[in-house]
């Protein structure tokens, strides 16, 4: 990881750049695949599945037999761990249910707002470099709590057409039935447009690599809503001299191992901490199975030494990390000044992987600086708000003249008349 000591503010923007695929190329490739899926449906899905995942079969839907067999392959300890994570995620997301809002804005003018579940949702579970069964919990638990009626799940198969058994176990634990062996852009296109076998949904959720993220962004221009751009994982650690170098290194590596295009950033005001963290990274990296992936991600990554806490906060809000760990003495106070981050982890005993798996918060989070404007997945992501109003005869007498005045000023006579006609009927 490259170290930058006291970089002047005008250099921060350059320093905080994300690793880029050639974006124009990426979007062109993705657009072509999406058009094929839109025009040719399942036959194109099969062709792209063969090309990118080495699986060419007409059998796209996972059968009950396959799920039953998969469930037998999962150890009881893992089933127990998944059970605890599920309960925590349920608890945190159930607490997000919001009551209906009812306000009488003027006498006789009653306004209501109610949350209604999105009927059909599509969940994308990444499976390219690691089978993220935890993402099944993160996406399906809130969908079920919200009350979504149709839940479609797509995830890439291996060359033999098999889905990771733990993904299937988790999906079956949650009662999901429509599981398709399809990954990448072809899965996003299939859920956006619908194919002969894959139902079209209203909103697509889930993280993925740059291809998946670009596909979500393109289909959201016209066909469907999406949760947010949730691309290659990132973590930023804010650390002072109270941080534990081994813990900091472990957190940086935990996101670096996701993919070669992941990015991890350490920002500190402690010069002494830097070589200690570097030593720890080298020690821990050598022990990882995914060391080559993590090593590549570290090439995209940086250590930044700054003068004080104020600068550390400023650079964090400018970067808007997906995950932010604050390993500093005053972590609670510093957290109050953070306005741009997907999810924040406080103190030395809160590893980011707690949020990835089991604490209860959602791990599907905005990357690439989108945390400036987007929230991570939460219960509201699966809901629409519908507003209602009911005006009584007395109510229209109260509010009618206001509406007439405004409609006349906008020169919209018919709008005005819809009120006048009622007021006159009451004379
Ligand atoms: N932001 C978040 O909330 C979050 C959460 C979990 C994981 N992630 C990220 O999700 C990503 C998962 O990526 P992954 O690759 O392991 O799995 P993935 O399922 O996202 O991508 C695999 C698919 O990519 C497609 N693909 C691969 N190369 C292609 C090419 N050249 N052209 C077109 N399509 C191609 C294939 O169809 C394959 O099925 C990682 O980057 C990880 O960091 C993000
Ligand atoms: N850190 C990922 C989100 O960027 C989520 C995840 C799933 N499994 C492990 N990690
Ligand atoms: Zn992770």
The distinct bound ligands, ions and cofactors come out as: nicotinamide-adenine-dinucleotide, L-histidinol, zinc ion
CATH architecture level-2 label of the largest domain: 3-Layer(aba) Sandwich
Q: In the residues, how many domains can be counted?
A: 3
Count of DSSP strands: 14
Q: Remind me, CATH topology of the largest domain?
A: Rossmann fold
Question: What's the quaternary structure here?
Answer: single chain
Compute the average pLDDT: 96
Q: What does the overall shape look like?
A: globular
Low-confidence stretches: none
Binding site for NAD(+): 124, 186, 209
GO biological process, one term: L-histidine biosynthetic process
Pathway: Amino-acid biosynthesis; L-histidine biosynthesis; L-histidine from 5-phospho-alpha-D-ribose 1-diphosphate: step 9/9
Binding site for substrate: 233, 255, 258, 323, 356, 410, 415
Please tell me about this protein's structure:
- Helix 3 packs antiparallel against helix 8, helix 4 crosses helix 7 and helix 10 (245-256) crosses helix 11.
- The protein contains 17 helices and 14 strands.
- It has 3 domains: 26-99 and 118-227, Rossmann fold; 231-375, Nitrogenase molybdenum iron protein domain (Rossmann fold, 3-Layer(aba) Sandwich); 392-425, no CATH class.
- The chain starts with a strand and ends with a helix.
- It has 427 residues and is an alpha/beta fold.
- Bound molecules: nicotinamide-adenine-dinucleotide (NAD), L-histidinol and zinc ion.
- Residues 132, 134-135, 233, 255, 322, 356, 363 line the site of L-histidinol.
